[in-house]
Amino acid sequence: MSGSDFFTIRHGSFHAAVLYSALEHLPIHNLKKLFRLAKKAQFENEDAIQGIRSYFDTAIPEAQETMRAAAKAYEDGWRKVDKPRSRNPKTVEQLRINKELTTRFKQAHARYERLVASRKVFEETLFPDTKHPMN
Q1: Cα dihedral angle (105, 111, 113, 118), rounded to 10 degrees?
Q2: Domain extent for 111
Q3: Would you call 132 helix, strand, or coil by DSSP?
Q4: Which pLDDT does position 1 carry in this prediction?
Q5: Which residue of 34, 82, 97, 117 has the fewest C-beta atoms within 10 A of its own C-beta?
């Protein structure tokens, strides 16, 4: 693997090499822990923090565009089937297309929402809003 595929978080004797693509699959709780560790040794992890920020800056718009394309394909291709239990080949084919379009949109939307949530955790953990009255 090249250095651009992953980032490294260090704090004391702790050392973690994490794939950028894993950020969208890790549980939020684990992301918070990882980002807190990065904040504790912020100077040592500055490259990782910048790498994570740039990953989110490119991945979120890409995911949003994918979601919009999936939504457009869904709008253009999804058709209501009058008798969904019919085994007519045309009906079966349209049901398959409908299911595929629905699945693609749901997956694209879930990925986008997950990236946005991960970015929010990243920003709140490493760069808290000190002007907020509850802080």
Answers
A1: 180
A2: 6-126
A3: coil
A4: 38
A5: 82
